[in-house]
């Protein structure tokens, strides 16, 4: 295979992890990122004037630089048709069409699809009428209220009591906190069980799976506090044992991909299934995402010893080939360092120390999510700032190393969870 030029769309911690992984492939000659970030500039050529959502810009850049493969990081460009546009222009793309991306962009559409194809899910109903929605909430008591559209991960309210659900309806449908994304809501049964994130790379038919991972969505230790974009992740997650994984593949992944083929919209890219696994080992789908998870990807790129480029490229070209199995895959843990106040208001421009020291550590990589270069160093520029990621022979070793590294990095008011991967270690 001739040396490849790969373009990654996006600028966050997930995209830093992707360019880092892709840059290690012996098949790759150049890695570009649009727009990329200062924090990834040592592994990718960042084209800062092309935003991830600038579809014309992505097409023009791909042509100009004769890009062999585009990997799209975030969901919004996918929902806007970035993969379709690039494919129409003759560029190989790892990422699904806009039609498929509706599985993430509309929760009602996704639930209806799952129901049609017999995928295990909670009971649910969609509403455009607020009074009908209120009546359902009073009937159900405990439930989950979801804005139908994309709401940057904030449109879901888990409500053990009906009062919370009624308040959520007022906010989403009444005050239109998420605009049109909340003109329709899904109200569903509250599932109990441990959560996991499962990733299937696919060309529509064949599948290569990654190690099951677990995110930590709440801001504080013990899963307290507000929902965030994710405060840390690790892989493999033992809750998805072999028996559970088999069920995930047979009951969820393959029926989903088959359903999409039958409906004429085959999946190309990574299907990310958010799961709950109950005490009996029954997995159910919380949601589909049509992209890699953040910060799970930061852990997965370190955990996996595979070269991902043949997988991403094979999926994009409709010829995904299963890699040779790897023994002793090991584990990885990512600890997110967030700005003080996140996920609410937080300051920016805080000077970060310790990055050089950590750069010399073996088996540790720091992925930048919200930083900016200033002079010789970096300052914070976002809520989630860094994903301090370490690999080890097992989760414990990776966890210890990730925290050793995290404790060497500082900025004013740094916020982190101390219990990333604790669930795996408590087993
Ligand atoms: P999402 O924005 O769809 O990822 O949902 C955010 C979080 O809400 C998930 O990670 C779950 O913790 C929770 N959640 C969503 N749907 C349900 C459900 N039906 N039952 C219990 N928890 C849920
Ligand atoms: N890790 C959660 C997400 O990427 O949506």
Query: How can the largest sheet be summarized?
Result: 5 strands, parallel
Outline, from the CA principal axes? globular
**Unreliable spans:** none
The protein's oligomeric status is: single chain
Question: Might you state the CATH topology name of the largest domain?
Answer: D-amino Acid Aminotransferase, Chain A, domain 1
**Helicity level, as a percent range?**
25-40%
Structural class by sheet pairing and helices: alpha+beta
DSSP summary: helix tally: 14
How many distinct folded domains?
A: 3
What's the pLDDT, averaged over the residues? 96
CATH class of the largest domain: Alpha Beta
Gyration radius, rounded: 21 Å
Strand content: 25-35%
Task: Supply the CATH superfamily name of the largest domain.
Answer: ATP-grasp fold, B domain
Strand segment tally: 22
What CATH architecture of the largest domain would you give? 2-Layer Sandwich
Read across the widest sheet, the strand sequence of neighbours is 3-2-1-4-5
Which small compounds were modeled alongside the protein? Answer: adenosine monophosphate, glycine
* Cα-to-Cα separation, first versus last residue: 44 Å
Task: Tell me what you see in this structure.
It is a single chain. The chain contains 14 helices and 22 strands. It has 427 residues and is α+β, with helices and mostly antiparallel strands. Helices cover 31% and strands 26% of the residues. The protein folds into 3 domains: 92 residues, Rossmann fold; 65 residues, 2-Layer Sandwich (Dna Ligase, domain 1); 233 residues, D-amino Acid Aminotransferase, Chain A, domain 1 (2-Layer Sandwich). Strand 20 and strand 21 form a beta hairpin. The site of glycine has 7 residues, from loops.
């Amino acid at each position: 295979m001739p040396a490849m030029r790969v373009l990654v769309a996006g600028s966050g911690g997930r995209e830093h992890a992707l360019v880092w992984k892709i840059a290690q492939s012996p098949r790759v000659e150049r890695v570009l990122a649009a727009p990329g970030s200062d924090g990834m500039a040592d592994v990718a050529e960042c084209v800062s004037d092309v935003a991830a959502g600038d579809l014309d810009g992505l097409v023009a850049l791909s042509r100009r630089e004769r890009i062999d493969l585009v990997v799209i990081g975030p969901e919004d460009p996918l929902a806007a048709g970035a993969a379709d546009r690039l494919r129409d222009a003759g560029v190989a793309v790892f990422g699904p069409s806009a039609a498929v991306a509706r599985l993430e962009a509309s929760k009602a559409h996704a639930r209806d699809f799952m129901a049609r194809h017999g995928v295990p899910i909670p009971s649910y109903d969609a509403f455009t009428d607020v009074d009908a929605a209120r009546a359902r909430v009073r009937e159900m008591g405990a439930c989950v209220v979801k804005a139908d559209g994309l709401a940057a991960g904030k449109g879901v309210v888990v409500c053990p009591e009906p009062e919370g659900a009624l308040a959520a309806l007022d906010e989403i449908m009444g005050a239109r906190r998420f605009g049109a994304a909340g003109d329709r809501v899904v109200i569903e049964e509250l599932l109990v069980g441990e959560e996991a994130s499962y990733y299937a790379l696919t060309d529509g038919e064949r599948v290569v799976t990654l190690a099951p991972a677990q995110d930590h969505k709440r801001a504080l230790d013990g899963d307290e506090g507000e929902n965030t974009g994710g405060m840390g992740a690790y892989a493999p997650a033992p809750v998805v044992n072999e028996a559970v994984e088999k069920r995930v593949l047979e009951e969820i992944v393959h029926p989903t991909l088959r359903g999409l083929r039958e409906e004429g919209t085959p999946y190309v890219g990574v299907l990310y299934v958010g799961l709950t696994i109950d005490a009996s080992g029954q997995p159910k789908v919380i949601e589909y995402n049509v992209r890699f998870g953040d910060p799970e990807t930061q852990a997965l790129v370190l955990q996996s010893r595979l070269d991902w480029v043949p997988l991403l490229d094979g999926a994009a070209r409709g010829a995904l080939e299963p890699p040779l199995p790897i023994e002793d895959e090991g584990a990885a843990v990512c600890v997110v360092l967030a700005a003080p106040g996140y996920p609410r208001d937080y300051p920016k421009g805080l000077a970060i120390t310790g990055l050089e020291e950590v750069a010399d550590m073996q088996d540790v990589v720091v992925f930048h999510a919200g930083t900016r270069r200033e002079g010789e160093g970096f300052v914070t520029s976002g809520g989630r700032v860094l994903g301090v990621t370490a690999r080890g022979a097992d989760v414990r070793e990776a966890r210890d190393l990730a925290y050793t590294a995290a404790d060497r990095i500082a900025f004013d008011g740094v916020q982190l969870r101390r219990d990333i991967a604790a669930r795996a270690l408590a087993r």
